[in-house]
Amino acid sequence: MNVPSAAHAPPPALPATPPPPTDAWVDLSDYTPGDYRPGRGKLTQLVWYFLSVLLFESGWLPASGPKRALLRAFGATIGRNVTIKPNVRIKYPWRLKVGDHVWIGQEAWIDNLGDVRLGSHVCLSQRAYLCTGGHDHRRRGFGLLVGDITVGEGSWIGAAATVLGGVTIGPNALIAAGSVVTKDVAGAQVVGGVPARVLGDREPPTA
Predict the structure, then answer these.
(1) Which residue stretches does the UniProt record annotate as biased composition, category Pro residues (predicted)?
(2) Phi, psi angle pair for 124, to nearest 5°
(3) 62: Cβ–Cβ under 8 A, 6 or more apart, which residues?
């Protein structure tokens, strides 16, 4: 009978290595989106993702008409004469409602895990960011938080401004470039800064 030599014996199992210590107050490995539902199935999300990358985010299609039609085909409500500049990102078109004569500027990002409503004659300037999603930093699992965003008629969201979830902006308000809006803005108010604060009132046009 052959006896296996020590050279061919399997090595002894090593003890399990404990994870390295961490000072993090959150555990992202424990993250779940909770009961959040995107509103469409995974196949629709996947098809939209690729069409968005090809026709919206790439910037090679300058015309607004085909982009309006595509958004409507995926469930968005899009009014008349809406201008959509190149390199725009829209998370879920079925959660988007846009009034008439709205301008959506180049590289604007509508990150609409929740519903986003843009009233008629809203100007969303280049690189503006509407962010409906966030995280609960008070929970170790860093759970998902979602809040809708509404922008009233005639309002102007300046370049590179950020509007956070749960915010309602009244009609004819003006958000200064680069601002971060964390709470509601009354109609015809001018706000700016990080976080945004009231700077004054917007006067109606004279002509």
Answers:
(1) 9-21
(2) -105, 100
(3) 85, 86
> Among candidates 161, 93, 99, which has minimal Cα distance to 130?
161
Element containing residue 47 per DSSP (H, E): helix 42-51
Cite the active site residues: 135
User: In this structure, what token pair is assigned to residue 11?
Assistant: 């090595």
Please tell me the distance from the alpha carbon of residue 23 to that of residue 190, in angstroms, as a whole number. 41
Tokens standing for residue 94? 């079925």
Cβ pair 87, 67 in contact under 8 A? no
User: pLDDT of the chain along its 207 residues, tens only?
Assistant: 555 555 566 666 666 666 666 788 999 988 988 899 999 999 999 999 999 999 999 988 999 999 999 999 999 999 999 999 999 999 999 999 999 999 999 999 999 999 999 999 999 999 999 999 999 999 998 999 999 999 999 999 999 999 999 999 999 999 999 999 999 999 999 999 999 999 999 999 887
What CATH homologous superfamily does 38-201 map to?
Answer: Hexapeptide repeat proteins (2.160.10.10)
Instruction: Please give the model's pTM, rounded to 2 decimal places.
Output: 0.87
DSSP codes joined into one string, 53-75: IIIIIS-----HHHHHHHHHHTT
- Which sequence spans correspond to the domains of the chain? 38-201
Place of tokens 């993250």: 31
